[in-house]
Amino acid sequence: MTHRYIKIGATVLVLGLAFSGMLWSTLREGTEYFKNIDEVIANQQEWQGKKLQLHGYVVPGTWVKNTKSLEYKFKVQNNPARHEATGGIVEASYTGILPDTFKDEAEVVLKGQFGPNGFQVEKDGVMAKCPSKYEAASKSATSGS
Amino acid sequence: MASLGTFLLLASFVVCSYSAVVAVVGARRGSRRLIESGIGAFYLVCALMACASAVMINAFLTGDYSIKYVEHYSDSVQPLFYKITSYWGGLDGSIMFWVFLLSVFGSIAVWVNRERHRELIPYVVATISTVQMFFLYLMVVHRNPFTTFLTTAPAEGQGLSPLLQNFYMAIHPPSLYTGFVGMTIPFAFGIAALITGHLDDSWLRAVRRWTMFAWLFLSIGLFLGMIWAYEELGWGGYWMWDPVENAGLLPWFTATAFLHSVMVQERRSMLRVWNVMLVIITFFLTIFATFMTRSGVVQSVHAFGEDRTLAWLFTGFMVAILTFSISLVIYRLPLLKARNELDSWMSREAAFLVNNWILLFSAMFVLFGTMFPTLSEAVTGQRLTVAAPFFNKWMLPVGLILLVLTGVGPLLAWRKSTVKNLVDQFMWPTISGVVTAAAMIALRIPLWSSGFCFALCAFVTGTLVQEFWRGGAIRRKNTGTDMLTAMIGLVGRNKRRYGGYVVHLGIVLICLGFAGNGFKRTKAFVLDVGQENTVGRYTLKNLALKISDDGQKQMVTAHIAVFANGKQLDTAYPAKWSYRRHEQEPTTEVAIRRTLAEDLYIVLGGYEAATQSATLEVHVNPLVDWIWLGFGILALGTGIALLPERAYSFAVAKMPAEVATSAGLLLACVLLGTTTLSAQAGMPSASASTQTSYFARTPLEAQIQKEVVCTCGACGHAAIGECRKDPCQVSHELRAEVAGLIDQGKTHDEVIRAVIASHGGSQDMLGAPLDEGFSRLAWLFPYLLGSGGAVMIGFAAVKWSRSAAASTETPAATDSELEERIDDELRDLD
């Protein structure tokens, strides 16, 4: 009986170690920091070169496109446009196609890293919030009957 | 109307609590009358919810914008169909729809099982009622869909988001909810069995079918979500491991595990604790998935609002479910002891066990990955996220292992496989897998991971063909029919098993599609008018950019000519539409050129109206359509497995021998007739000289004129009786030849053979392959599709016209090991 338990124990140990090892290694390269702009703007140097998902809002009227190529430049701020204070502003550049939902004031998450010319968004790295069926609570859950 | 709706919800809540309490009290006191009263109240909830739903749909149809929910999710110009589907368009309505579905399913389940599982029913009623109470409570106190505006009501609604005004999106939620809600029924039966201690396998029989049903709808729901993402969102893919997508996948994994392990319990009385736990976990995951997507706990691109109250209510409910169910399981552990032990790792139960572990692992892994941002924030204070590459890296090998098991499982014997039957069973499938792998290497397709996946697909397909073939061969020997009738009879004898194989075939096709993803090509560029650019083998040219308006929306359409090998294949029209009132959310209308080999997927990313230049993103997606096809086959297989047992076997027993073959022929004739009919419309009439031979003098001649095709090269191989290429000398001569052969007194088969022989011996001459030898394989597909419907119609006719008579079919004793195995399994699983 004890022999059997040793076998089972050893199997579980080996599988467990292999599993956690693989998980650790894939997590190390697969993870990205999810940050709001204000969290990184203060010490931008520290975040230089780290993979980030940057959350913010598009500053109205700041996005320009190079008509001959797919290069975009735009600014993103920490707070929604309706807020009194904009919070930190980051300049971002992106090459590719922007999603339909990307527009002035849109809430976006940008994948990429800080480079010499502001935030460099990686390929397909712009996520703008979808209009979904499931709207925020504040709108419809104000009063009971 | 709104107050009526609110009242109905309140009444449902009250009746629900009454039903739960009275059912339990009745069961404990042994009072039949109390239990009946509880069941009655349970049905009443269903009626009340139906009324509430009617009120809601009425409000949408009449445009009662004083109700906030209606105002928010519809407007007056919306088409009728989308007005109705707006019912489940938002959070509040979807909860209400959830309760409605649950009350309907619950009532059906209770009604069907009221006699068979009399001892379980009170607790089933109580469990379902409790779940309903939770959701009704959510609505009554927190998210009432009938909330009205306190001030003046607006005259017009805001309208459903244009992205959701899509056919797939309209039917995707109900399908997914049907799957989710359906999982409550097995859970209720499981809890009832645990409470009453009736833990023999009878509760499993009651829920097996429900689980399969719920699983089917969950699969369809996932499929619709994928195809919607593919066609509507325009990013070129169908799955991106978004929390919302993952939510649907979690219970799918555990339900799949349950559907497999339940067989082990039926056969070997093992895994009893495991099965109860799987049912509980599956139900828990459906609730957890709802919680995850609705409460804003997990950050997602989809704007699921943050709702703290809802999050806490759900958390409380989930904790309650887990504590209650797991303590029940622990309390009943002595009754749940396995009656057998695993004899060998080379057995089917072992394969099922491994499959279960991996499926459970998949569920837990996806759960972990989805919750990782939340977890990491709670532990380290940093919000770390993982994205699609992380999931792909892990789920790819997991998926491949599952695919291996899909093939291996059915080949292993129960209890223990001997070396002899391993060799016997694995030889052909392994050969087909290895040959495919060799072909992959020869074609320089990278072996990891797509090539490997293709090889595995071949291996699994090999096992499936072998299972059907061997089973069919034995049945043919025993019943004396032809192979195909035998195979269909085989499916009828054990629908669960062979239906399951058809599902496996669907899974193989889906995996094939996933593997194709490895060869995906993507390119983005700007095209001015007249400019060209190349992606893969396609060359795209911008012909024009046009802007039009149809009153409801403004449409910007690019006209893109698609060339391949110097020839124009098609013109594609990728577009962007902006709906009125939703100008800020333009929708992308993707142009997809579908072929089985690859899809050409063109997105209009942006445009410059002044210069007519279009920004295009082009994807070439190989094998994508096989995924959708695979889901179709999967649904077909589940449908076969779900058909009522007695009905099908009765119908098959009544069928005369070879009926399948003749039905297939008939079907082929009809199909051939209709296609050629449409082809001949509008064609000029043939000239007199070649026309005389059209008129068949005998039915045989007419039949052969339909079976032999014309080789004139201008008619696209129409049947010689139908080739109207004017004047067609070739078909005229062929008709004359056939007439001559018939005049010599030859039979149908002799004529066909003579025609083939006189034209080089190739079957190209035939509109359909000869029904013999290898060519029969080509017949299999229409059979599978067509005979399903034919058998059902036939069954209805037979049942009405004759009384039931026991099938006298007794298998002849041919003493082979395989037959023993098959018969053994047929008996046990029937």
Mean of all residue-level pLDDT scores of chain B: 82
User: What number of structural domains do the residues of chain B give?
Assistant: 5
- Biggest interface and residues each: A-B, 44 and 69 residues
CATH class of the largest domain in chain A: Mainly Beta
Count of DSSP H/I helices of chain B: 27
The SSE string of chain A, one letter per element, is HEHHEEEEEEH
What general outline of chain B do the C-alpha atoms trace?
globular
Percent range for β-strand residues of chain A: 25-35%
Q: Could you give the topology of this structure?
A:
The complex is a heterodimer of chains A (145) and B (830).
Chain A: H1 2-30, E1 31-36, H2 37-41, H3 44-47, E2 52-58, E3 64-65, E4 71-77, E5 89-95, E6 107-115, E7 118-128, H4 137-140
Parallel strand pairs in A: 1-2, 5-7
Antiparallel strand pairs in A: 2-4, 2-6, 3-4, 4-5, 6-7
Chain B: H1 2-29, H2 32-62, H3 68-73, H4 80-85, H5 91-113, H6 121-142, H7 167-182, H8 184-196, H9 202-233, H10 243-268, H11 272-294, H12 308-331, H13 348-380, E1 384-386, H14 388-411, H15 419-442, H16 447-479, H17 483-493, H18 495-516, E2 521-527, E3 532-535, E4 538-549, E5 553-564, E6 567-572, E7 575-579, E8 587-589, E9 591-593, E10 598-608, E11 613-622, H19 624-642, H20 645-654, H21 659-680, H22 688-691, H23 699-707, H24 729-743, H25 748-758, H26 776-801, H27 817-829
Antiparallel strand pairs in B: 2-11, 3-4, 4-5, 5-6, 5-7, 7-8, 9-10, 10-11
Characterise the protein shown here.
The complex is a heterodimer of chains A (145) and B (830). Chain A has 145 residues and is of the alpha+beta class. Chain A folds into two domains: 1-31; 32-128, OB fold (Dihydrolipoamide Acetyltransferase, E2P) (Beta Barrel). Helix content of chain A is 29%, strand content 34%. Chain A contains four helices and seven strands; from the N terminus they run αβααββββββα. In chain A, strand 3 and strand 4 form a beta hairpin. Chain A starts with a helix and ends in a 5-residue tail after the last helix. Mean pLDDT of chain A is 77; it is low at 131-145. Chain B has helices at 2-29, 32-62, 68-73, 80-85, 91-113, 121-142, 167-182, 184-196, 202-233, 243-268, 272-294, 308-331, 348-380, 388-411, 419-442, 447-479, 483-493, 495-516, 624-642, 645-654, 659-680, 688-691, 699-707, 729-743, 748-758, 776-801, 817-829, and strands at 384-386, 521-527, 532-535, 538-549, 553-564, 567-572, 575-579, 587-589, 591-593, 598-608, 613-622. At the A-B interface, helix 1, strand 1, strand 6, strand 7 and helix 4 of A face helix 1, helix 3, helix 5, helix 13 and strand 1 of B.
